[in-house]
Amino acid sequence: MTQPKLKSSIAILGCGDVGSTLAYTLIMQPICSEVIMVDLKKELLEAQVRDLSDSTYGGRSGVKVRAGTHKDAGQADIVVITAGAKQKHGESRLSLLSRNLHILESIFSSMAPISPHTILLLVANPVDILTYFARKLSGLPESQVLGTGTSLDSARLRGILAEKAEVAPSSIDAYVLGEHGDSQFIVWSSATIGTTPLHLALPGKLTPEFKASISAHTRGAAGAIIAAKGCTSYGIGNIAASICKYILFDSRSVRPISFYQPELGCCLSMPAVVGRKGIIKSMPVLLDETERAELEKCASGLRGVIEGAEKELSADEQLRKALEVDEGV
Ligand SMILES: NC(=O)c1ccc[n+]([C@@H]2O[C@H](COP(=O)([O-])OP(=O)(O)OC[C@H]3O[C@@H](n4cnc5c(N)ncnc54)[C@H](O)[C@@H]3O)[C@@H](O)[C@H]2O)c1
């Protein structure tokens, strides 16, 4: 007889600034019964587990926090990947690709065999490219591999539009789609406040200058925070925790999430219904001509980066095989 499942577990790979903030958010809500922390830096890992466990003893949260191996992580309900290098001030997300792709490869070889029911949530950057390769390296169905994508950029958009319109951020229905990076774009044509189209809610304000300044804000917000404190962690910690909640609670929330787009040949953010099995379905989105062109440009840029990364991975593989032959392995 199969045993009843008693725990819901979330493994966090990488317990630096983002991983530990996510763990704290999961504990405080609480969203699951167990958080498994994994990091190569053993002292940091033990310290984070102790510190996070201390936050559970006050009685508000019964979440158990423990250190685990990559193999343990591979059996969790959700594996969140925050492991990887982060941007320095002025550095682009794409510049992290080579380092973080190699980390991703090593993570999947250490986690194997990964549970066929695990949902993977990519946070490390460049998140759209890593989501694409995680899908290949994990062997999991496409619907089970998601990236936080432009969820954070969309939250920032809600924040700034709410300020301009003097309403609550939760009343803003507007998305940033495409890449979590420089080629992202705002879907102005279908943005609403409540059910009111944006141009009626902000009469006379939607000038090209206004739109350009809001786009610059959502695209560049991370850079200003990183310049001052060396990382961003609270916004992304909250976004990643919310996505974990949509999954474990099968909430079917519609969010801009990065996932594989077969017709575009890459992973990027489009609105999706998120539930217990990951991406339940994509939601069609109405784009005007400009937005469609922006989506195409964004996808073509991401495809170019993927091609370059595929070449790098295959050169690495050839080198590894050649070294094995030399060493007589
Ligand atoms: N998607 C988003 O919106 C978003 C937002 C903020 C940060 N990020 C990204 O998240 C990543 C983490 O940022 P951070 O500030 O927490 O960095 P950090 O340096 O504080 O933490 C990264 C941790 O990963 C660990 N690590 C490295 N290789 C590992 C492996 N193989 N297995 C387990 N752990 C490993 C490191 O030891 C380190 O502790 C970065 O790539 C950053 O760009 C993404």
Automatic annotation (TrEMBL):
What InterPro entries does this protein's entry cite?
Answer: L-lactate/malate_DH, L-lactate_DH, L-lactate_DH_AS, Lactate/malate_DH_C, Lactate/malate_DH_N, Lactate_DH/Glyco_Ohase_4_C, NAD(P)-bd_dom_sf
Indicate which residues the UniProt annotation says bind NAD(+): 14-19, 39, 100, 123-125
* Residue stretches making up the Lactate/malate dehydrogenase N-terminal domain: 10-147
Query: What sequence ranges are listed for the domain Lactate/malate dehydrogenase C-terminal?
Result: 150-311
Name the chain's protein: L-lactate dehydrogenase
Q: Which UniProt keywords apply?
A: NAD, Oxidoreductase
Which family does the record claim for this protein? Belongs to the LDH/MDH superfamily. LDH family.
- UniProt record, GO biological process: lactate metabolic process
Q: Does the keyword Repeat apply?
A: no
Q: Which residues form the active site?
A: 180
Q: Name one GO molecular function term.
A: L-lactate dehydrogenase (NAD+) activity
Which EC numbers characterise this protein's activity in its record?
1.1.1.27
Which pathway or pathways does this protein act in?
A: Fermentation; pyruvate fermentation to lactate; (S)-lactate from pyruvate: step 1/1
